[in-house]
Amino acid sequence: MKPLLVILGTRPECVKIAPVIREARRRGWVVDIVNTGQHGRLFADTGFELEFPDVTALGTPNLGDPHAFAEAARERLHQWVYDKEPHVVLVQGDVSSAYAGGWFARDSGWPLVHLEAGLRTGDRNVPYPEEMYRKYLDDIADLRLAPTPLAFKALIDEGLEAGSALVGNTVVDALRALDVRYVPVPIRPRMALVTLHRRESWGGPMERIVEGIKAVALETENRHGLIFRWPAHPSPAVQEAATALKTWTRKWKRAGNIWVEEPMIYPRFVRTLAYARAVVTDSGGVVEEAATLGVPCVIARDKTERMEAVHAGVAVLAGRTSEGVAIALRRCLDGSLTQTQRTLSKPSSVFGDGYAAVAACDAMEKAFN
User: Fold this and answer.
1) Which of 76, 111, 152, 279 is 20–30 Å from 254 (CA)?
2) Do residues 233 and 196 touch, judged by C-beta distance below 8 A?
3) Cα separation, 175 vs 180, whole angstroms
4) d(CA 139, CA 91)
5) Which one, of 43, 62, 64, lies nearest residue 52 by Cα?
6) What is the DSSP letter of 344?
7) How would you classify the pairing of strands 4-8 and 88-92?
């Protein structure tokens, strides 16, 4: 097996690639890791610091524009590998760092592996630029590792079956590695979780999503003792919405059961999620984690590339209106995720069995030995 070059720059990439790095090193592969610098804090927040003992930091400045960042990261990658032997390049997902890594691999003529391939909303502008990035990566990859049968089918439908493999989602491996497990509903506290961060949610859509959460919080603040915990993402747009909510709460002395908190490190976040009665999110990774942990999920988006959770009855695609979010959240808290399903939440294996990293490394060995 050629040396493996892992290119990443965000916390979700780190979480999902860590199990693959662990398995690759167990097999004796040489693994080089490059951090583009897309997120300021990365490895210290994931719980997988020991998987990343030697990391090259590119220190790419965050230019505020995803395309400009990707181009700058690509240029720095070329500088770093100037005298390096050819590697197999591994990227994950659909963020700017993955796009830069794929772009670099194509320029260099090095084999490219795309982990979590085949995710699609069917709309190239939703989410933007992620849908465009992941389609580009799948088009140029030598090996595409699909996380679910639905993602694998998308690759087949696009004529990309050759060079594609169904391996499962490594987020399930990550939860197993951190020993985060399903918590029976009766012993969970009366708590719901909120996570919002997507670019398309900024501004008016996020205000409407928060209004929907606020409506349910007002209904439950005295009668049921339900608490909503919102570890607010550090982006200015999210902080603005969180500050507006806190100001409204103080002014009217209402919805005091919505607690706006500092962002959580990953192990603490997923353990908090496991104890939630429901989660409202626009994050694809949280949809996967919630399904695996049996937490009913309100997807606060108009379209999602994780329809598996909706089809399995463990998530509701709510849209971004206050009414849609409120209705979906009430259904999740009631346990009635579909018209026919009125049972307590149960963990789902729709995103995998926790052995995706083994399958991913098997596929890479087969493709590049």
Assistant:
1) 279
2) yes
3) 5
4) 14
5) 43
6) -
7) parallel
Q: Which residues contact residue 290 at a Cβ distance below 8 angstroms, ignoring those fewer than 6 apart?
A: 273, 279, 281, 296, 297, 309, 314, 315
Angle ∠(354,355,359) on CA atoms, nearest 5: 150
Closest CA to 16 of 365, 296, 323, 284: 284
A 10 A CB-CB count for 11 gives 21
- Report the chain's mean pLDDT, rounded to a whole number: 90
Residue 301 phi/psi, 5-degree rounding, is: -145, 160
The CA-atom distances, in angstroms, between 360 and each of 36, 112, 114, 356, 365 are 23, 13, 10, 6, 9
Report pLDDT for 224.
Answer: 67
Whole-number Å distance between alpha carbons of 191 and 158: 42
pTM for the model stands at 0.93
- Helix, strand and coil content of the chain, in percent to the nearest 5, comes to 45, 15, 40
Cα separations in angstroms, 24 against 87, 180, 340, 367, 369: 14, 23, 44, 14, 13
Phi/psi for 322 (5° steps) reads: -65, -40
Distance separating alpha carbons of residues 228 and 246, to the nearest angstrom: 13
Q: What structural domains and CATH numbers belong to the chain? A: 4-178+352-368 (3.40.50.2000), 185-334 (3.40.50.2000)
Kindly indicate the confidence band of residue 42, based on its pLDDT and cuts at 50, 70 and 90: low
Is the backbone peptide bond immediately before 129 cis, with ω within 30 degrees of 0?
yes
Among 91, 47, 145, 160, which residue's Cα sits nearest to residue 357?
145
pLDDT at 115: 98
